[in-house]
Amino acid sequence: PLKPLKIKRLDSEISTDIYLDEEEAKKILDKFSEETKTPIKGQVFRTKLNNLSLTAIISPFAGTRFMILRS
Length: 71
Prior knowledge:
Elements: E1 4-9, E2 12-19, H1 22-36, E3 44-49, E4 52-59, E5 63-70
């Protein structure tokens, strides 16, 4: 099932009307991987691009979940 994109800011969390399917999530991870030249290996993917840090959990059973933090 699709879950809405959530934005966390300070102490609040906003649920948006934006939904990503598995393919769209994979495209985001692939773009980060390509730009940072960091291969996606295993079930955990971490990388940093400029001021963005991405942490992803990749699971064939539970689907892909990721978090992008601005630093």
